[in-house]
From TrEMBL:
Annotated source species: Terracoccus luteus
Biased composition (Basic and acidic residues): 88-99
A Pfam family annotated for this UniProt entry: SSB
Annotated PROSITE patterns: SSB
Protein's recorded name: Single-stranded DNA-binding protein
Keyword field contains DNA-binding: yes
Amino acid sequence: MAGDTVITIIGNLTADPELRFTPSGAAVANFTVASTPRQFDRQSNEWKDGETLFMRCSVWRDAAENVAESLQRGMRVIASGRLKSRSYETKEGEKRTVTEMDVDEIGPSLRSATAKVAKTQRGSGGGGFSGGGQGAGGGQGNQVGGQGGQAEDPWATGGGSGGSSGGGQGGGWSGGQGGSGSGSGGSGGTQGGQNGGQGGGWGQAPSYDEPPF
């Protein structure tokens, strides 16, 4: 769309993607990408971490289900999408504005990991990807309130239970540069990415009722 601010962000997932469904049946996956810049300190002759940027992201429809079945906490990803600004009111009545990202494309970083692509059969969505482990982590399907379509708040809570869970194509590749995972059940690799990659050192993401800045 004309006038959109399109960006690409590289970083680690702070948690497993959360998959939900709108009343109209549209899937939406929410997740946060932690991106930490690295700078070389000539005085100490070593690389140092800068301040971590936490970007809250949403992806819709078939891609949302693929993301929930393919990505796990700690994995290093490359995401491209459009920035958007959203205003909301906290429980205390304070008005706040957050900047979020509507993801158009996302995939794993292959700098220190491998992934196998498996085309899905859901329809118009692109292929999901899975790694060399024995189990893929998936999101839990919960329903969000409001009316259908991308105009809805993808971070809203509440509603009934959805009907999709993770699994599918296998997975569990090592995320980030922090370690190699080879255990069963997709558990290997989710620990490594937490402090790995170029941007290690990120901590807890902001809570959902607080802006990420």
